[in-house]
C-alpha cells in the first residue's frame, strides 16, 4: 500500500513534480492559439499551416494517450513520466528553433507524443504514491494548481508573444523540464501495476492516430479538391475501419468495444464530441478574430480569454456538487445552451471591438456554460461504467474530446469559407468568423438535445471524480485507473 504522506517533505516534492509535468502540457494547450498570427507572419505560413500547428499536436496526443497510461502501468510510472517530460521538452526546443512552418508542425507532432506519456503519468504517480488518507487532497491540489496553469496560459502566451517572441511559448518548457526531471528522479518512488502484462495495443494506437491524421489532412486541404485529397480522405476512412476491426478482435484492445455497451457511456461521449468540437473551433478562431479583426495585441487577446478559465477554476467543484444533487441531465442540457449563447454573442466582436461591452459578456457566458457542463460530464462518464474501468472510461472520454477539437479546427475554416490567406485579410476573416460561430452554436445545440434525450441519473454508489477543480478548455479532466 502506498504510504507517502502529503505533509512530509517527500510528499511535497512528489506533488511539485507532478504539477510541473502536467503544467507543461496544460500551458501548451492554451498558449499556442494566441501565438498563431505572429507565427504565421514570421514563418510566412498559410491558414492551413496554422491549423496544423494546432492539430499536429492533437493528433498524436489523442491517438496515443491511452497507450501512454498503459506503458506507465507496466514499465513504471515514474520512468514513463520522466521520458514524457524529456521528450516533450526536446520537442518544445525544436518548436522554438523551427525555421519553417513544416519543421514546426513536425515538432508539434513530436510534442504530442511526449504529452501522451506525461499527461496520464502525473495523476498515476499521485495515486500510486500517497497514503489513501491523503490521496484525495493531493489530487485536489494537483488539479487545482493545474487549473491555475490553464487559466493563466493565454495571458502568459500573450505576454511572451508580445515581449520575447512567440518562440518562447515553446522554449519556456525547457527550464520547467530541467527542474522537473531531477526532482522526479530523486524524490518520486517508482511504481507499476503488477496485474498488467506486456501486451500493448500498439497497432490500435497507430491506426487510431493515422486515421485522425489522414482525415484531418483531407479536411484541411479539401479546398484544393484534388485526387490526392480524395485519396487521403479514403485512406483515413480505411484506417478508421481497420482500427475498429483491430479493437474488436484483439484480446487486450486499447479501446474495448464492449465498454460502449453502456448506453449512458455512449450517450455522454456523443455529447462530448459535440461540445468539444464546438469549443475547439471557438477558441482557435476567437484568438485569431481578436487579433486579426479587432486589432488586439497578443497580450490583450490572451487576457480577454482569461475570464472563461478563471470561472472554471473557481466554480467547477461547486458545479460538480450541484450536479450530484440534481443529476447530470439538467447541467448537460443547460451548459451547452449557455455556451451556444456565448458564441452568438461573439458575433458582436468586429473591428475595434470594445472589451467591456463586446468581448467580456461573451467570455463570461462561455465560462458559465463550461462551469455548468464540464464537471457533470466527467462525473457521468465515471458513473456509467464499472468502478474498475473508470480510469479507462475517463481516458476514452478525454481522447474523444481532443479528437473532436482537432477535427473541428480542420473542418470549420473550410465550412466557413476561409481562404488560405484569410487571416491576413481582416474583412474576409470577419465575414468567415460570423459564419463559423452559428455553426459552433448549432453543434452545441445538438449536444444539448442529445443530453436531454439520452442522459439519465446514474445508479447510487457509483464512483465520483477526484479531480474537482479544472481549468482546461481543450478536454475534460483525466481520472485515475483506480483508488
Automatic annotation (TrEMBL):
<feature type="transmembrane region" description="Helical">
    <location>
        <begin position="48"/>
        <end position="68"/>
    </location>
</feature>
<feature type="transmembrane region" description="Helical">
    <location>
        <begin position="12"/>
        <end position="36"/>
    </location>
</feature>
<dbReference type="InterPro" id="IPR036259">
    <property type="entry name" value="MFS_trans_sf"/>
</dbReference>
<feature type="transmembrane region" description="Helical">
    <location>
        <begin position="80"/>
        <end position="99"/>
    </location>
</feature>
<dbReference type="InterPro" id="IPR004638">
    <property type="entry name" value="EmrB-like"/>
</dbReference>
<dbReference type="Pfam" id="PF07690">
    <property type="entry name" value="MFS_1"/>
</dbReference>
<dbReference type="GO" id="GO:0046677">
    <property type="term" value="P:response to antibiotic"/>
</dbReference>
<feature type="transmembrane region" description="Helical">
    <location>
        <begin position="329"/>
        <end position="347"/>
    </location>
</feature>
<keyword id="KW-1003">Cell membrane</keyword>
<feature type="transmembrane region" description="Helical">
    <location>
        <begin position="226"/>
        <end position="246"/>
    </location>
</feature>
<keyword id="KW-0812">Transmembrane</keyword>
<feature type="transmembrane region" description="Helical">
    <location>
        <begin position="395"/>
        <end position="416"/>
    </location>
</feature>
<feature type="transmembrane region" description="Helical">
    <location>
        <begin position="105"/>
        <end position="126"/>
    </location>
</feature>
<keyword id="KW-1133">Transmembrane helix</keyword>
<feature type="transmembrane region" description="Helical">
    <location>
        <begin position="359"/>
        <end position="383"/>
    </location>
</feature>
<feature type="transmembrane region" description="Helical">
    <location>
        <begin position="296"/>
        <end position="317"/>
    </location>
</feature>
<keyword id="KW-0046">Antibiotic resistance</keyword>
<keyword id="KW-0813">Transport</keyword>
<feature type="transmembrane region" description="Helical">
    <location>
        <begin position="436"/>
        <end position="455"/>
    </location>
</feature>
<dbReference type="GO" id="GO:0022857">
    <property type="term" value="F:transmembrane transporter activity"/>
</dbReference>
<dbReference type="InterPro" id="IPR020846">
    <property type="entry name" value="MFS_dom"/>
</dbReference>
<feature type="transmembrane region" description="Helical">
    <location>
        <begin position="168"/>
        <end position="188"/>
    </location>
</feature>
<dbReference type="GO" id="GO:0005886">
    <property type="term" value="C:plasma membrane"/>
</dbReference>
<feature type="transmembrane region" description="Helical">
    <location>
        <begin position="267"/>
        <end position="290"/>
    </location>
</feature>
<feature type="domain" description="Major facilitator superfamily (MFS) profile">
    <location>
        <begin position="14"/>
        <end position="459"/>
    </location>
</feature>
<feature type="transmembrane region" description="Helical">
    <location>
        <begin position="200"/>
        <end position="220"/>
    </location>
</feature>
<feature type="transmembrane region" description="Helical">
    <location>
        <begin position="138"/>
        <end position="162"/>
    </location>
</feature>
<keyword id="KW-0472">Membrane</keyword>
<dbReference type="InterPro" id="IPR011701">
    <property type="entry name" value="MFS"/>
</dbReference>
<protein>
    <submittedName>
        <fullName>MFS transporter</fullName>
    </submittedName>
</protein>
Amino acid at each position: 500500500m502506498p504510504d507517502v504522506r502529503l505533509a512530509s517533505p517527500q510528499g511535497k516534492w512528489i506533488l511539485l513534480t507532478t504539477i510541473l509535468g502536467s503544467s507543461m502540457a496544460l500551458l501548451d494547450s492554451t498558449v499556442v492559439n494566441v501565438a498563431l498570427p505572429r507565427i504565421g507572419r514570421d514563418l510566412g505560413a498559410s491558414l492551413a499551416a496554422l491549423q496544423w500547428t494546432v492539430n499536429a499536436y492533437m493528433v498524436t496526443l489523442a491517438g496515443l494517450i491511452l497507450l501512454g497510461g498503459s506503458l506507465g502501468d507496466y514499465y513504471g510510472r515514474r520512468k514513463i513520466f520522466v521520458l514524457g517530460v524529456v521528450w516533450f521538452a526536446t520537442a518544445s526546443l525544436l518548436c522554438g528553433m523551427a525555421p519553417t512552418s513544416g519543421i514546426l508542425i513536425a515538432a508539434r507532432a513530436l510534442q504530442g507524443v511526449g504529452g501522451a506519456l506525461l499527461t496520464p503519468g502525473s495523476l498515476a504517480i499521485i495515486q500510486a504514491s500517497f497514503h489513501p488518507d491523503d490521496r484525495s487532497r493531493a489530487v485536489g491540489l494537483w488539479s487545482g494548481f493545474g487549473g491555475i496553469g490553464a487559466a493563466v496560459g493565454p495571458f502568459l502566451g500573450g505576454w511572451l508573444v508580445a515581449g520575447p517572441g512567440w518562440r518562447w511559448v515553446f522554449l519556456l518548457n525547457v527550464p520547467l523540464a530541467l527542474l522537473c526531471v531531477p526532482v522526479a528522479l530523486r524524490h518520486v518512488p517508482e511504481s507499476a501495476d503488477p496485474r498488467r502484462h506486456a501486451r500493448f495495443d500498439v497497432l490500435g494506437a497507430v491506426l487510431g492516430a493515422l486515421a485522425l491524421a489522414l482525415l484531418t489532412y483531407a479536411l484541411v486541404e479539401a479546398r484544393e479538391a484534388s485526387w490526392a485529397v480524395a485519396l487521403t480522405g479514403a485512406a483515413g476512412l480505411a484506417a478508421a475501419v481497420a482500427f475498429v476491426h483491430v479493437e474488436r478482435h484483439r484480446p487486450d484492445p486499447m479501446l474495448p468495444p464492449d465498454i460502449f455497451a453502456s448506453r449512458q457511456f455512449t450517450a455522454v461521449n456523443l455529447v462530448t464530441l459535440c461540445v468539444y468540437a464546438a469549443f475547439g473551433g471557438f477558441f482557435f478562431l476567437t484568438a485569431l478574430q481578436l487579433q486579426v479583426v479587432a486589432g488586439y495585441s497578443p497580450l490583450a487577446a490572451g487576457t480577454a480569454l482569461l475570464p472563461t478559465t478563471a470561472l472554471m477554476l473557481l466554480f467547477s467543484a461547486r458545479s460538480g456538487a450541484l450536479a450530484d444533487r440534481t443529476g447530470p441531465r439538467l447541467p448537460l442540457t443547460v451548459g451547452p445552451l449557455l455556451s451556444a449563447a456565448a458564441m452568438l454573442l461573439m458575433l458582436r466582436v468586429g473591428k475595434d471591438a470594445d472589451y467591456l461591452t463586446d468581448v467580456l459578456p461573451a467570455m463570461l457566458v462561455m465560462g458559465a456554460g463550461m462551469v455548468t457542463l464540464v464537471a457533470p460530464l466527467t462525473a457521468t462518464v465515471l458513473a456509467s461504467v464499472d468502478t474498475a474501468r473508470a480510469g479507462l472510461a475517463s481516458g476514452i472520454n478525454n481522447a474523444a474530446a481532443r479528437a473532436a477539437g482537432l477535427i473541428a479546427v480542420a473542418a470549420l475554416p473550410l465550412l466557413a469559407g476561409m481562404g488560405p490567406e484569410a487571416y491576413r485579410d481582416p474583412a474576409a476573416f470577419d465575414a468567415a468568423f460570423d459564419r463559423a460561430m452559428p455553426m459552433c452554436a448549432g453543434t452545441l445545440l445538438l449536444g444539448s438535445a442529445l443530453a436531454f434525450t439520452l442522459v439519465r441519473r446514474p445508479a447510487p454508489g457509483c464512483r465520483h471524480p477526484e479531480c474537482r477543480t479544472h481549468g482546461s478548455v481543450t478536454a475534460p479532466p483525466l481520472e485515475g485507473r483506480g483508488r
